[in-house]
């Protein structure tokens, strides 16, 4: 019986040593580590870093393989509820995301860049996505949204956001969209 315990103890030591010595020499290719997120101020957004600022409702999501086969990206179908800035390409748009993905049924305020060659949109920067509601959509000027974009970060109503955008466009002059 002593031999069995010694053999079992020796085997466990070998397994522990192998587990401790194994090292993953290549870094994992997780989407969050692959993303290179710029951040822009509100003024930069209005002056060319974003093509549209929209309130959207997520009506469909599909997980697909990205350019790197090990990467899964999401294509989300968005129903536009209100356009605060810019001229989106239709009443519904496709959003391409590899990280911080929108959820089906959610309502979001999004600062978007258009990728016409792919016929889809991406969020403009790391702070361009604000969850408004995970459930039922209720639109009103009093709807409060926690905005993360530098220069206007904080809680704003839709009416306040419209005013901030209008003011920034006036300050930017004719070059703003």
From TrEMBL:
Is this entry keyworded Signal? yes
Keyword list (alphabetical) reads: Signal
Q: Does the keyword Signal apply?
A: yes
Q: Where is the signal peptide?
A: 1-19
Which branch of life, at top level? Bacteria
Name of the protein = Uncharacterized protein
- Look up and give the organism this protein is from: Paenibacillus montaniterrae
Q: What is the phylogenetic placement of the source species in the record?
A: Bacteria, Bacillati, Bacillota, Bacilli, Bacillales
């Amino acid at each position: 019986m002593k031999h069995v315990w010694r053999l079992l103890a020796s085997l466990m030591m070998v397994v522990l040593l192998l587990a401790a010595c194994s090292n993953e020499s290549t870094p994992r290719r997780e989407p969050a580590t692959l993303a290179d997120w710029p951040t822009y101020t509100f003024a930069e957004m209005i002056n060319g870093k974003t093509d549209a600022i929209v309130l959207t409702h997520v009506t469909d999501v599909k997980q697909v393989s990205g350019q790197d086969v090990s990467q899964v990206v999401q294509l989300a179908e968005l129903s536009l509820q209100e356009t605060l800035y810019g001229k989106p390409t239709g009443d519904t748009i496709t959003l391409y995301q590899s990280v911080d993905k929108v959820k089906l049924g959610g309502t979001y305020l999004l600062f978007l860049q258009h990728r016409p060659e792919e016929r889809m949109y991406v969020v403009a920067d790391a702070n361009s996505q604000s969850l408004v509601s995970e459930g039922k959509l209720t639109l009103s000027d009093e709807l409060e949204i926690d905005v993360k974009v530098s220069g206007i970060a904080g809680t704003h109503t839709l009416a306040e956001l419209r005013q901030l955008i209008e003011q920034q466009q006036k300050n930017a002059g004719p070059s703003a969209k």
